[in-house]
Amino acid sequence: MTIQFKDESFRGDFTYANSPSNIPRFPFPFPEDAYMYSTNIEPHHAARAGSPFENAFDVDEHYVAEMKDRALVLADDPGRCQALPHMETAGWDFLELVMVSKARDYPDLFKLTMDGDRWHWINKPLQIDDTFTFGDSSTLPCHPMEYIGRQVQGDHAILD
After folding, report:
1. Number of domains in the chain
2. R_g of the chain, CA atoms, integer Å
C-alpha cells in the first residue's frame, strides 16, 4: 500500500499526531486566531498532486484509525448516523460515488467490480471484502449511506 497508516488512538492515551509529511497537506490556512465554521459547497475539481484535493475523496495516514474510532462512536451512539427511508436512493448514489472514486483514485487500496447490479467491493486498509446487490439494502449490513460512511473520512450529509 502506498500510504503508511498510523496506529493511533483518539481516546485514552490519545496518540493522534500528524507526521511532518502530512502537515503540508492540511487544507485550511488559518491566517487569523479565530475561525468560524461554514459550509463550503462548490464543484470539486482535482488539484495539486499530493494535496487533499487531488482526489475526489482524500485518504491519509489517519484513515484506518479514524474509521476504527467512527465504528466505536456508532456502536455507542447509533443515532449519529441517520438515513431516513425516503433517502435510500440518495444513499445508494453516495455509495456509488465513493466506491467508484476510491477504486479509480487509489487502485492499490480499493477495488470495485460491477457485474450489472452484482457488485464486489474490496477495501484493503479496513479488510472489507463484500459482495452485494446494488439497490438492495438487504444485501448490506446496514443502510447504504451508513455502510459507505463507515469507510470514508470526514462528515457527510445528504440533504433533501
Report:
1. 1
2. 17
